[in-house]
Amino acid sequence: MKMKPMKLEGALKLYMVLYFFAFLFTFLMSVPMLMHVMPKSECLLFVQTSHDQSKKFEYGSPGGCMAAGILPLLVSLGALGLMLAQWLQLRKLRAHLDNPEMSSDEYRAECRNMFWKMIMVHSCMGGLVVVIACILSAGYALTCRNIYLVVEKEIRFRIQHTPSSNRGQQ
User: Fold this and answer.
1) pLDDT tens string 88-116
2) Cβ contacts of residue 44 below 8 Å, gap of 6+?
3) H helices within the chain, ranges in order?
4) Which of 107, 122, 18 is nearest to 75 (CA)?
5) Rounded to 10 degrees, what is the CA torsion of 150, 153, 154, 156?
6) What's the pLDDT tens digit per position in 50-95?
7) CA dihedral (95, 101, 106, 109) positive or negative
8) What burial letters (b/e) apply to 20-41, b meaning 16+ CB within 10 Å?
9) What is the value of pTM for the model shown?
């Protein structure tokens, strides 16, 4: 089954919608992270076990959570910029169709130039998303591992101090 080729206007509208969703989701991801970190600098990324007996955990550096909150804002700004570029291209296309001042070949060459610039910006934003994913994955993996070790140690300590009540009825 052969698919129909998508017209340029339809493609530009689709890209605008997709970039809007990229903006929305990255914004909705970063704001809660920043709201959680800002008041008391309690970052759940890179949590470590505490050597102090009065507390079990030490929160991770607020810088990790700040990076995980601010970098997506940069991605959302990039998505807004790309959405604006798509909108400008759409307006330029409509103006060209209404009153062509240049030939179609020249217009296509100009569109191709703009397209490659947008691809470069899009690639940079994608690389930034990969960096954010790496920071979050490493931070939460380390946090889960350290919390697991503390909980395991506490459960073993409780079992060792109450061996008779831990046995089944005989």
Assistant:
1) 988 888 888 787 777 878 878 888 888 89
2) 36, 59, 60, 65, 139, 140, 143
3) 8-37, 62-98, 104-161, 163-166
4) 122
5) 160
6) 877 777 888 888 888 888 888 899 999 999 999 999 899 888 888 8
7) negative
8) eebbeebbebbeebeeebeeee
9) 0.72
